[in-house]
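pinned: reference chain
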Amino acid sequence: MLNSFSSAISPLLDQRMPGHALPAGLYTREDVFKADLDVFFRRHWIYVGLECDVPEPGDAHVIDLGSSSIILLRDDDNQIRVLHNVCRHRGARLLDSGTSIVSKLVCPYHQWTYELSGELAYAPHMGTGFDKTCKSLKPVHFRSIGGLIYVCLSDNPPEDIGTLETVMRERLAPYDIANSKVAFQSEIIEKGNWKLTIENNRECYHCSSNHPELCVSFIDLDFGFDPASLSPEDREEAERHQALYEARTKAWEAEGFPSAAVEQLVDCATNFRTQRLIIAGAGESQTPDATAASSKLLGSMTRKDLGDVHLWGHNCWHHFMGDHAVCTMIIPLSADETLVRTKWLVHKDAVEGRDYDLDKLTSVWIATNEQDAQLVARSYSGVLDPAYEPGPYSPFTEGQLDNFATWYIDRMRANGY
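pinned: its structure tokens
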């Protein structure tokens, strides 16, 4: 199957021109979609959830990824486990999608029963010679990075996850994401290919004209610009902004808050970028007025002026601020549908209505996600048109899209396509 897919997909990969969007078939074809699931959602590290999704022993959360299903849970020793949601008897799913509370993992089909560690505890009517020790649930490779759960479904996960782990554990430590809680969760099914969802997130060329709520706390000069198009006054403003970034980054880092951009975007397996961004306006949070939504700050944070630690990967994007965090993951459902799951995190002891207002906490990104869903659907509809030709990226505002497309082609090639 891989060879037939590979021979059919390889010419599409050859067609991609540097500095341009991908050929239509890489967004629309079913064989490409299956290859994407295999390469990017099985053989690479992906973000799937949070330690605080399962705050107590016995809490379990199922994540479905194509034909695979995994269980994120907390065991009786308060340790995080990630297990394949496949009974070792005849393969039945142990748990349904979503969240549940369990004392054991009991297969509904024939009642094979597993400890929360994954060990098989009970298998009725299997005879005295049956060896339970070799029928534990299969574990999934995972890392908890500052409370974010990354998994790789391959038996040989990429080793360069270590860079992401080293960088983000230090950056996320003051926020103590493992001891936060999910205040709200939303899900949107975007009518477009998962790569269009990621591309849309990696540029803000479109932000000024499409995201009025987000632009209250985002600085438009951060979206990128063509220097030749600026007036002398605007050029001076851009230079002042750059100087402010350099000074603010230097000050933040001197105070013990890593802030400079760290990128691992091409010539790598694990794709990520992080940087501490200045927040516009009141400068505190991504809310309708850019002030903090929660009076109870995350973790050990005591300041609201430490900007936005952003982090993205090839299936996620995150924003960590003093008062709350926004964590988003994507799951491809088909070539033309993508699930976008967003969670808003607050301090575990924060109380809605007393410490934070839910509408103020969530309204900016609820609006932004809905706007982005419309843009992705509009883009996918155009890609389906026979008149579509891959257009050139702006070198000033869409450089990260070129990086992503380059990485995508390289990783497909590295995995035999």
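why pinned: Residues 179-414 form a domain with the Naphthalene 1,2-dioxygenase Alpha Subunit; Chain A, domain 1 fold (CATH 3.90.380.10). The chain has a mean pLDDT of 96.
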